[in-house]
Amino acid sequence: MVGDGAVPLLLHLALLASAALFTAPTTTCANAGAAALAASFREAPAFRNGRGCAPPGDRAAAIHIAMTLDTTYLRGSVAGVFSVLRHASCPENIVFHFLASSPRRLRPTVLATFPYLSFRMYRFDAALVRGKISSSVRPALDQPLNYARIYLADLLPPSVVRILYFDSDLVVVDDVAKLWAIHLGPHLLGAPEYCHANF
């Protein structure tokens, strides 16, 4: 027989354990500092290349991935980056390119969470699209950063000639090298079919 205090204690311990796994705040404060954001995530482990990988820094072996970053969807972006690295056979050869409205604010969080990550940040000027977003679009899509991917060629350095773009709510369950290896032939863009839509 379990004592009267055992059930609340077990529940309390379970709640503490779940809180220890992810310590991000449940609300977003517009004035939260970069230090508070960085303290929201635990440091990820160092993901190292497997056998047969080119040495880190080999430009010919680099896999470039672009994502947008903002405070609203930061949890999803962190989970996405973690899933890419976790399933990659050569994680040290992956270079992330983050597009953000306020890169200075988000850089400390990325550095604290992924200290071994190879990445660059680019400022996306929301004024580029602010007057061009239709009022009939779904409210979830009316944020200017959702359209930053259209400007990738203008934001990235000319040395990046190929890139994979991942939404911030994506979780990867396989090695991105397989996707990177797909030959596009004469096509400039590859995309998955979306709900049988014909774009």
TrEMBL record:
<dbReference type="GO" id="GO:0016757">
    <property type="term" value="F:glycosyltransferase activity"/>
</dbReference>
<keyword id="KW-0808">Transferase</keyword>
<protein>
    <recommendedName>
        <fullName>Hexosyltransferase</fullName>
        <ecNumber>2.4.1.-</ecNumber>
    </recommendedName>
</protein>
<dbReference type="InterPro" id="IPR002495">
    <property type="entry name" value="Glyco_trans_8"/>
</dbReference>
<keyword id="KW-0328">Glycosyltransferase</keyword>
<feature type="signal peptide">
    <location>
        <begin position="1"/>
        <end position="19"/>
    </location>
</feature>
<comment type="pathway">
    <text>Glycan metabolism; pectin biosynthesis.</text>
</comment>
<dbReference type="InterPro" id="IPR050748">
    <property type="entry name" value="Glycosyltrans_8_dom-fam"/>
</dbReference>
<dbReference type="Pfam" id="PF01501">
    <property type="entry name" value="Glyco_transf_8"/>
</dbReference>
<dbReference type="GO" id="GO:0005794">
    <property type="term" value="C:Golgi apparatus"/>
</dbReference>
<keyword id="KW-0732">Signal</keyword>
<dbReference type="InterPro" id="IPR029044">
    <property type="entry name" value="Nucleotide-diphossugar_trans"/>
</dbReference>
<comment type="similarity">
    <text>Belongs to the glycosyltransferase 8 family.</text>
</comment>
